[in-house]
Design brief:
The protein is α/β, with parallel strands linked by helices. The protein is built from 15 helices and 14 strands. The strands form 2 sheets. It has an 8-stranded mixed sheet with strand order 3-4-5-2-6-7-1-8, sandwiched between helices. It has a 6-stranded mixed sheet with strand order 13-12-9-10-11-14. Helix 13 crosses helix 15. The longest helix has 18 residues.
């Protein structure tokens, strides 16, 4: 009912500029959104142009045109479809408007909608469309009173639409509604049960539970936010900092503490020059390293062995003992996985970037070897440097030596 009526003057949401409906498959979100979109457009506008966008024209006809147009006719609307022009004309309440169909298949699709003036746009399965197409469609809605309508099933949590729209719904004056299968009264318990049996792993989380989660192939599937994200439950006795250093790529530093047999990531520093729009020097990164240490006793700083200039920078300051990390990728992943499974590695809630990367760090399914995708891996690398280089030996500290060049 909220979806059907949000735009009405008597609704508490009538002042919103957009609506986003995401969640499980077969939850009714697309059907409700499309019916509401057509009623809103026809009731409040006359002689206007609108866009209905999907991944492809074929998917639009299958998912929206075929099921929705008969419903509109039953409600008393006059509907005229012109397939050759990808156009549907809808009339009611003495008004008549044009609804153009667009497919957002790839980056080149943005040119298809460029130049139009629209009073509103509906983007179905928006998470499957390229960002350039979506932003071009939004930019076309320049008519006073125009509104934006989005629907999608969840994708990975770092997807641009999740980051820029769902997480910023309030900032963008959007009504955000999350759907589950229980919201669809047409589904019987047996049908819901059948859908739940169709999926597993991350696809179950996305399509049944409606969560934005990473796809299969996670390097650390044993990572459980409910278990591994917590503050230390005791005194921190020893501290180390691990560093994955980058100039073009992000730099990620983690402050780790020993608490009995458990290891905690207490704080972190993460700088992405592409995201921030500028780069930092070795000295600026070193200043961030000192700030991360916070004046506490740091036994050693473990650094990406390829970052020779940064290693030398740390040594010149003479404050921290610096050790080139043991960069055994597969061995480090195995050891890190063992510590996660054994309940010996934990992360403070403030360490948002390493928590984010856990959901995105994946094996490369296209490789014939055990390799990881070199994306979203910078905090993952600094964690591996810590685990691989600082090893328990009956409560002691073991460091593999590396030749200084």
């Amino acid at each position: 009912m909220a979806v059907l009526c949000w735009w009405h003057k008597n609704s508490p949401y009538s002042g919103r500029d957009a609506i986003i409906c995401d969640g499980a498959v077969r939850s009714g979100k697309t059907f409700c959104l499309c019916v509401s979109f057509c009623i809103w457009a026809t009731a409040l506008k006359n002689g206007s142009s609108f866009a209905i966008c999907g991944k492809t024209i074929a998917s639009l006809r299958r998912n929206i045109v075929t099921p929705i147009l008969p419903v509109l006719r039953e409600l008393g609307f006059t509907v005229s479809e012109k397939p050759s022009r990808n156009l549907v004309e809808i009339s009611a309440f003495g008004h008549k408007n044009r609804f153009y169909l667009f497919g957002g298949r790839d980056e080149s699709s943005a040119s298809l909608i460029q130049g139009m003036t629209l009073s509103g746009v509906l983007l179905d399965e928006v998470a499957l469309m390229p960002r350039s197409f979506v932003e071009q469609a939004i930019a076309r809605c320049s008519v006073e009173g125009s509104k934006l309508w989005f629907s999608c099933n969840p994708d990975h949590p770092a997807h641009w639409f999740h980051s820029e729209w769902i997480k910023k719904a309030k900032e963008k004056n959007c009504l955000y509604l999350h759907f589950t299968m229980d919201d669809n009264p047409s589904l019987s318990p047996s049908i819901v049960s059948r859908y739940k049996k169709l999926y597993s792993g991350a696809f179950y989380e996305r399509f049944v539970e409606g969560k934005w989660s990473a796809a299969h192939g996670a390097v650390y599937p044993m990572f459980d936010p409910a278990f591994h994200i917590r503050e230390p439950e005791g005194e921190i006795t020893r501290r180390f900092i691990s560093c994955d250093y980058g100039t073009v790529n992000p730099s990620s530093f983690g402050l780790w503490g020993f608490c009995g047999e458990k290891r905690y990531r207490l704080r972190e520093y993460y700088f992405d020059s592409k995201r921030e729009g500028y780069s930092r020097t070795d000295e600026e990164h070193y200043a961030a390293l000192e700030a991360l240490a916070g004046g506490e006793n740091i036994e050693a700083v473990i650094v990406d062995p390829s970052a020779s200039s940064f290693i030398e920078c740390i040594r010149r300051h003479g404050v921290f003992r610096v050790i080139p990390a043991v960069n055994d990728v597969l061995g480090g992943i195995r050891k890190t996985g063992d510590m996660l499974k054994d309940g010996r590695l934990f992360f403070s809630p403030c360490c948002k970037d390493i928590i984010r990367e856990f959901g995105l760090y994946r094996w490369d399914g296209n490789s014939v070897k055990d390799t990881v995708c070199k994306q979203n891996d910078h905090a993952m690398d600094d964690m591996r440097y810590f685990v691989n280089t600082v090893t328990d030996k009956d409560g002691g500290f073991f460091v593999s030596a590396a030749e200084r060049r």
